[in-house]
Amino acid sequence: MLKWVQRQSFRCSGSRTRDNDKAVVIEGSDPRVATCRGKLQNRRSKLNQEINKELRLRAGAENLFKATTNKKLKETVAVELSFVNSNLQLLKEQLAELNSSVELYQSDR
C-alpha cells in the first residue's frame, strides 16, 4: 500500500478598505477574513488527521517488522516503512508551512 501526498499551496487574501469612504470598519468583521481563517483551520485539521493516520500505519508496520521472521516480508515492510516515514515528513513540512502562514496572517493585523 503506497500513498503519495500532494503538496498544496494555501493563500488567503486579506481585506483592504479605502479611507475615501470614511466608513468605520471593525477589525475581523469582514466575512472574507473569517472564511480564510476557517479554511486555514480546516486544512490544519485535515493535515493533523493525515499525520495521525500515517503514525498508526507506521506503528503497525513496525510491529509487523518486529514480529515476522520471513525475510521477504521484512524487506517489503521495510520499504513500506520508508514510504510512511517520507509521507510523514512531507505532511509535517506542510503543517509547518501552513502554521507559518497562519502566523503571518495573524501578525498582519
Question: Could you list some keywords that capture this structure?
Answer:
mainly alpha; single chain; Helix Hairpins; 109 residues; disordered N terminus; 2 helices; 0% strand
Description of the molecule:
By secondary structure, this protein is mainly α. It has one domain: Helix Hairpins. Helices cover 68% and strands 0% of the residues. The protein contains two helices and no strands. Helix 1 packs antiparallel against helix 2 (71-107). The protein is elongated.
Q: What is the CATH level 1 assignment?
A: Mainly Alpha
Individual helix count: 2
Low-confidence stretches: 1-7, 14-25
Q: How many domains make up the 3D coordinates? A: 1
Query: How are helices and strands ordered from N to C?
Result: HH
Radius of gyration from CA coordinates: 21 Å
Strand content: under 5%
Second CATH tier, the architecture:
Orthogonal Bundle
Count of DSSP strands: 0
Q: Please, what is the average pLDDT?
A: 78
Helix content: 55-70%
Q: Quick one: biggest sheet?
A: none
CATH topology: Helix Hairpins
Write down the overall geometry.
elongated
Question: Structural class, please?
Answer: mainly alpha
Distance between the termini: 44 Å
CATH superfamily: HR1 repeat
Domain REM-1: 30-104
Coiled coil: 81-108
Protein name: REM-1 domain-containing protein
InterPro entries: HR1_rho-bd, HR1_rpt_sf, RHPN1_2
